[in-house]
Amino acid sequence: MTQENAATSSSSPRYGRREFLRRAFRVSGKIGVGGGALTGLVAIGHGRDLPRGARGEMGVLRPPNSRPEAEFLAECMRCTLCADVCEPQCIRLFGPEAGASQGTPYILPVEAGCTMCMKCGPACPTGAIEPMQRMEETDMGVAVVDERLCVSHNGTGICGACHTMCPLHNRAITLDYRDAPTVHAEVCTGCGLCEEVCIVDERSGIRAIQVQSKRRMKAEA
């Protein structure tokens, strides 16, 4: 990356927001999080032969308001328009390793969650991603807290980053007196912003809060 590009990247609104929150909340996360990380590694290990975006047991996270998986795969024309208009640039496209899903969009919230800019639906020419008027209309998945990893739950720190970042503030995620989060599944849209900013653990790619999707991708022979 050139110095000019690096400067542009580091000064972008999204970079500033993500890095400020991560650094601010990471202070308490410096404290060890214990052996729960091993459990997390085992859990995602089941998906190690799948494309990275398939996320194993966590499922495939499609753009907001995507049709049910079978219909989505049949209707998506692999045009890339959804990724082109995505404001936070969180929409990625599967490569040839994904077989029949090659060229279809997915979101990897551990790196970039969906801000619900709602531009991908209108851009989709086939209706594989349907337009929506309100973020509450979508159900990408639901965030799940691993209390063994969450520093506010296991007593090794105080955080609350997921609550701060949640676009449905104090509705999808609430905090107790220790700033330990509770996810309200009936409200959560599965946008993944909480997973993106979680301070545990950036280097391993495992977070104390992760989005669970009902969609699955089978490994191809």
List the helices and strands and how they pair.
Blueprint: H1 3-11, H2 13-29, H3 36-45, H4 69-75, H5 81-85, E1 91-93, E2 105-107, H6 120-123, E3 142-145, H7 151-154, H8 161-165, E4 173-175, E5 181-183, H9 193-197, E6 209-212
Antiparallel strand pairs: 1-2, 3-6, 4-5
Provide structural commentary.
Helices cover 30% and strands 9% of the residues. It is built from nine helices and six strands; from the N terminus they run αααααββαβααββαβ. It has helices at residues 3-11, 13-29, 36-45, 69-75, 81-85, 120-123, 151-154, 161-165, 193-197; strands at 91-93, 105-107, 142-145, 173-175, 181-183, 209-212. Strands 1-2 form a two-stranded antiparallel ribbon. The chain has a two-stranded antiparallel sheet with strand order 3-6. A two-stranded antiparallel ribbon has the order 4-5. Strand 4 and strand 5 form a beta hairpin.
